[in-house]
Write a structure and sequence with these properties.
about 270 residues, globular, single chain, seven-stranded parallel sheet, binds beta-D-glucopyranose, alpha/beta
């Protein structure tokens, strides 16, 4: 039997580290050819590509800033040139710039919205255009194409000193639901994964010291910080036909962080 994602071409933005790198590796392990996209960490991007090839997979490593329209168009052209088409987009690239609201500059706001929300818009639009151009193909997938957006528990949980980040993820949620509604007739599925605390560089401050980790664990009923692979497995499932009837969904991967852990005692 073919691997679940055999003959599929996937693009993973922010593939040079953390959740993106794990998603790229997970998709490749499931049989997909993966275009690993990075913006500044060329070494990390190449490392992800090398790990995929070393385990027998097919990968390309491409530089692009997802907040720049021309670079996104060029990125999709390059993937089409190299692999013919694309079936799966993992809209993962994201940043945090944490600043108390009163001190937040327009630049702090705009940069986070540009990468986390506009970047997802630009990549999703190019992916959807390519899916519609191609139509259903011989890849074996039931869907014409599949878009998976990296959101966060902060699409729902307000987060002090991160108004830019929380607003971007709230926006991602509505982007996903709206695109899912609009694109379903083309047999394009659009879903989000909403991770909680996953041990990566973006939240290093929250787990690096014993004290910080203990504080963080108070927010996670399941009692451990997540691994990037916890998220990657959810992404692979959403990318495969195993989830063919799932669209417009946010799959929360958070060890229970969204379950109001403060209410375990009292209330
Ligand atoms: C953020 C992390 C944070 C987690 C849970 C994520 O979206 O990027 O920094 O640890 O949410 O609060």
């Amino acid at each position: 039997m073919d691997a679940p994602l055999a003959h599929r071409i996937a693009i993973v933005t922010g593939g040079s580290s953390g959740i993106g790198a794990a998603c790229a590796l997970g998709l490749a392990e499931a049989g997909a050819t993966v275009a690993v996209i990075y913006r500044s960490d060329a070494g990390g991007g190449e490392e992800t590509g090398r790990r995929i090839r070393d385990s027998g997979g097919r990968a390309a490593v491409i530089r692009a800033d997802v907040s720049d329209e021309d670079q996104v168009l060029a990125l999709f052209d390059e993937v089409r040139e190299r692999f013919g088409t694309v079936h799966i987009l993992v809209n993962n690239a994201g940043i945090q710039i944490d600043v108390p609201f009163i001190d937040m500059s327009l630049q702090d706001w705009s940069r986070v919205i540009a990468v986390n929300l506009t970047g997802q818009f630009l990549c999703a639009r190019e992916a959807a255009r390519e899916f519609c151009r191609r139509g259903v193909d011989e890849s074996g997938s039931r869907a014409t194409g599949n878009i998976i957006c990296m959101s966060s528990v902060h699409q729902q949980i307000p987060w002090a000193c991160r108004a830019n980040y929380a607003a971007s993820k709230g926006g991602v949620r509505m982007l996903v639901e709206t695109l899912a509604q609009e694109l379903a007739p083309h047999r394009i599925r659009v879903n989000a994964v909403a991770p909680g605390a996953i041990r990566t560089d973006i939240n290093r401050d929250a787990w690096e010291t014993e004290d910080a980790e203990q504080q963080l664990l108070k927010l996670i009923p399941y009692g451990r910080i997540g691994d990037a692979e916890d998220v990657a497995r959810a992404v692979v499932w959403l990318a495969s036909d195993a989830s063919d009837y799932v669209t417009g969904h946010s799959l929360v991967v958070d060890g229970g962080m969204l379950l109001y852990p403060a209410f375990r005692e009292g209330g």
